[in-house]
Amino acid sequence: MSQYEGVWPVAPTPFAESGLLDLESMKRVLDCIVDQGVDGVCILANYSEQFLLSDEERKVLTELCLNHINGRIPTIVTISHFSTDIVVHRAEEAQSLGAEMVMMMPPYHGASLRGSPDQIFQQFAAVSNVGIPIMVQDAPISGIDLPVDLLLKMATELEHVSCFKIESPQAASKLRQLIDSGQRYIKGPFDGEEAITLIADLEAGATGNMPSSMIPDLIKPIVSSYLSGNHTEASTQYNKILPLINYENKQCGFRAAKTIMKEGRVIESDMCRHPVPPLSDEIRKGLLKLAKQYSPIALHWGI
User: At what angle do helices 171-182 and 148-157 cross, to 10 degrees?
Assistant: First the structure.
């Protein structure tokens, strides 16, 4: 991959009603994503409920996903963990199985155990030594502010750090500073957070977007239009689907993609593991009513 751009959705992890992994549904999720013409896919991320998976389940899913995708689209494997040894092991495993990139947040555990700037740099340096491209995920869930100076230090001093998914508050400002200061070292500035700030982030210089798997087919034309110079068309397209993006971001979170995929018979169950509560009946109905106005592929893929 000489250039990192386009739409790279996060694949949800399907569970059976029993709570066990539903591996056949996982394959269907991946096929549904590939069929939408996306530029890549990310597995085992926060929107994949990675924090509810055992180590053995992670291994099973990493192998299954990379084998099933089989090079049809590039795959990013999320490897975040507080332990540097574990992160390095996960990076080595992803690389051995054919992943094109890994994504990781800075080391954190709970509200008060967080890596210092030096420790964060050292962990990313250890993974860079594995030799696989790294996407830095700057997300509020970690509780760590990754200042632009630290991101630039990683980009300029670590060979395999050149991609950044910025989801922090005022993401556009951080992207703009990072791109303006980093220049050639910043090869993949990405927007995230369900595309809730997509146009502002594209205006700041983002070349890619990592949304959920709810509507990547509706987001891709927006990114493509903007990157080809059709900014007015991109804004018009974005404004049309913004109510659905907002509903996902503010009302549902990662449960939205599963709800849509269950309705579209991509997956058998939209169950999320405890302690994640299911969507209320009212929110579920509101999401489906709104989604049907836009008819995303995931809503009817398996029907």
Answer: 40
| Catalytic residue (one of 59, 153, 165, 174) | 165
> Which CATH superfamily is 6-220 part of?
Aldolase class I (3.20.20.70)
Using left for φ > 0, alpha for ψ between -120 and 50, and beta otherwise, residue 221 falls in alpha
pLDDT at 139 over 90: yes
For residue 277, whether the previous peptide bond is cis, meaning omega lies within 30 degrees of 0, is no
Minimal CA–CA distance to 137: which of 76, 216, 203? 76
In the chain, what are the domain boundaries? 6-220
pLDDT at 2 over 50: no
Please report, rounded to a whole number, the percentage of residues in the chain having pLDDT higher than 70: 99
Residue 160 has pLDDT above 60, yes or no: yes
Rounded to whole angstroms, the Cα distance separating 241 from 239 reads 6
Active site residue 165: yes
Best CA proximity match to 171, nearest among 152, 190, 144, 150 = 190
Question: How far is residue 184's CA from residue 3's CA, in Å, rounded to a whole number?
Answer: 12
> Which residue reads 């000489």 in tokens?
2
The 3 state secondary structure assigned to 73-120 is: CCEEEECCCCCHHHHHHHHHHHHHCCCCEEEECCCEECCCEECCHHHH
Alpha carbon 122 to chain centroid distance? 23
Residue 302 CB coordination number (10 Å): 17
